[in-house]
């Protein structure tokens, strides 16, 4: 549970900063999606942008957490009884 908080809280903060910077430069009413102008309200565009930034930031933080797991943690329990179970 603590690892989830380590991922979601910093990614939430960074997503807020990223959205603030992005929408300071870009007007949501001038965005195009697949060649068509976006027809959502500004609030809907801001919300979707925030959740998109949050998802990308959370994926980045999760990758960092996964890369910090040691081989011992990944392989715990394997080989505890001689390593022969499941090798029929």
Structure description:
By secondary structure, this protein is mostly helical. Helix content is 61%, strand content 5%. It contains 3 helices and 2 strands; from the N terminus they run αββαα. It has helices at residues 2-25, 42-67, 71-74, and strands at residues 32-33, 36-37. A hairpin with a 2-residue loop joins strand 1 and strand 2. Helix 1 (2-25) crosses helix 2. The longest helix is centred in the middle third of the chain and has 26 residues, at 42-67. The radius of gyration is 21 Å and the shape is elongated. It starts with a helix and ends in a 14-residue tail after the last helix.
Top keywords for this entry?
61% helix, two-stranded antiparallel sheet, 88 residues, 2 strands, elongated, mainly alpha
